């Protein structure tokens, strides 16, 4: 059985884009893969965090995994900072296989650094930690969004370099990008990916009430036309809303276009609002089943399961280096 690994930073509420682009895919994959899902809290501290908020966010993200349908009996859920091998392997890769040019070419760093007055070294170097996260578990497949593809490519490159220089050690991972729904765009700016950092009205949080979500959808940017048609170049807002509805109702976009041929944007948006509200109510009800104590217990169990896996790989790395 092949191993998949992925994770999300605990930096706030997850949104609909996170669910469609990551969580729902993980749920599907866990049935026929050895699945390892991480709350990557070390990645969160590349920018300043309030310690109480970070602690609460770690629990909240793990709870979202569970509410989405990640089953602890089929998948491993753990907290990155509980496994010391992540940072040790990251340092080893920094020294043996990574090059400054690798990191200077990272588009996400350039974007993030432009928003920071004095960015941390960690913000520059975190792709190496991400590579360590992946390589530490002999990962075959990494389900990611388009914006993370460059990081998986770096992990592949580092693994190949280390194997070439020190002998066969790491499995070479591959990226898995969802064909539909991997890139949900913002509601108020459908030319950019949905993101909570852009603004409250840009995204639908998984914790939004149905009333709040409905208001956001009804205000979502569209165009001056009246045709409900999938055309991302000329009708990005309508195209994004069609994508959301097609996933929620498991219908093909072409069928939805036909269904809404004689409908206005208001009626179209109300249908989406109803589907989103139903989804959020169901998700939030599932989340309520898990107390903080239960979530922490699941994370601790996950830690026990991955500790021997991480220790085995790192021991091999150390042997190859003569450490």
From TrEMBL:
GO terms for biological process: tryptophanyl-tRNA aminoacylation. InterPro entries: aa-tRNA-synth_I_CS, aa-tRNA-synth_Ic, Rossmann-like_a/b/a_fold, Trp-tRNA-ligase, Trp-tRNA-ligase_bac-type, Trp-tRNA_synthetase. It is found in: Cytoplasm. GO terms for cellular component: cytosol. A motif ('HIGH' region) lies at residues 10-18. Its EC number is 6.1.1.2. The keyword Cytoplasm applies. It comes from the Bacteria. Pfam families: tRNA-synt_1b (PF00579). CDD domains: TrpRS_core (cd00806). ATP binds at residues 9-11, 17-18, 145-147, 184, 193-197. GO terms for molecular function: ATP binding; tryptophan-tRNA ligase activity. A motif ('KMSKS' region) lies at residues 193-197. L-tryptophan binds at residue 133. Keywords: Aminoacyl-tRNA synthetase, ATP-binding, Cytoplasm, Ligase, Nucleotide-binding, Protein biosynthesis. It catalyses: tRNA(Trp) + L-tryptophan + ATP = L-tryptophyl-tRNA(Trp) + AMP + diphosphate + H(+). Homodimer. Belongs to the class-I aminoacyl-tRNA synthetase family. HAMAP family: Trp_tRNA_synth_B (MF_00140_B). NCBIfam families: trpS. Catalyzes the attachment of tryptophan to tRNA(Trp). This is Tryptophan--tRNA ligase.
